Amino acid sequence: MAAVAATHAGQVNDVEVPHPPTDSISSLAFSQTADYLATGSWDNSVRIYEVGSNMQAQCKAMHTQQGAVLSVCWNKDGDKVFSAGADNVGIMFDVATGQTTRVAQHDAPVKAIKWIDTRHSSILITGSWDKTIRYWDLRSPSPIATLTLPERCYSLDFEYPLMVVGTADRHIQYFEFTTGNPTLPTIQSTLKFQTRVVSCFRGSMNTSKTGFAVGSVEGRIAIQYTDPKECVNNYTFRCHRKDIIPKSKNETIVYPINDISFHPIQGTFTTCSSDGNIYFWDKDARMRKGGFSPASGPITSTTFNRNGSILAYAVSYDWHKGHSGMTANIPNKIFLHKCKDDEIRREIRRRR
């Protein structure tokens, strides 16, 4: 990656969301119809916040599950919130009525839940540590299809027509929904260590082909294209690392990549990590556009609102050091960052 184009240092004047969860925050998701933010937490809760034009937020609704909530998402119309977690189930929350309904069931914790809109239908998809992906029609209590994975699901993302799944043992599986949902061959991640997150390319100004980004526990990102003709443009890069001795690469602290969020218009993306930093990247120009250090604790999750003007991020323990790393001084907070043009704007450069 090229040198930094802009860096924001010192105090970050972001807006703190009131009444955050009381335990680690695992997932954030903005509605695609209005500035409503859903959160999932290890305190078993799902909270929904309304974000006003002045960036001030209010908690409008909350419900709980029987275990830690690991993933949340919205439907296309923005009137339903789906959540899933350690209680092995998926729950639908009706924003208008406040009613909850069980809509998915697995044999192990559900790590990811996504609402999928294709040209032909809308379905719910869940990925679990029971090594399956299950497709759900909300009118039926049983899955309409089950796909067996090579290992436990660690991360799942969808951007029509592509769905990508990252599992244990560094397996990556991706599926295209254009011709009857054929399964493409399983590949091994080009990164040498455990996959932490996968994220599909998106953005209305994104001119590159279909593909996805992969983040690992070793502080590396891989940019992967699905078209074999574009694979020559695949590449990896290091980030979220700190030299113990300045400018020395011999002794380096490596931080896991906790989340990757693509801007809905520009196609640029953010990464966040246990080092408390958020970076902005342009994958086509292969450069880091900027970043800031909003917290001393880990950043666990990020998400853009529907027009990309706001980046929400969560500060809490990310469990990368296990139970022993959970200390009392790590906060549980959510912040709203007003995006600057130089952070998110795509560079007009020809991809190598």
UniProtKB/TrEMBL annotation:
Matching PROSITE patterns? WD_REPEATS_2 (PS50082), WD_REPEATS_REGION (PS50294)
- Keyword Repeat set for record: yes
Q: Does the keyword Protein biosynthesis apply?
A: no
Where would I find the WD repeats?
22-59, 103-146, 257-282
Spell out the Pfam families in the cross-references. Answer: WD40 (PF00400)
Alphabetic keyword roster: Repeat, WD repeat
Q: Which portions of this protein are annotated as coiled-coil regions? A: none
PANTHER family linked to this entry: MRNA EXPORT FACTOR AND BUB3
* Name recorded for this polypeptide: Uncharacterized protein
Species of the source: Amanita muscaria (strain Koide BX008)
From the broadest rank down, the organism's phylogenetic lineage runs:
Eukaryota, Fungi, Dikarya, Basidiomycota, Agaricomycotina
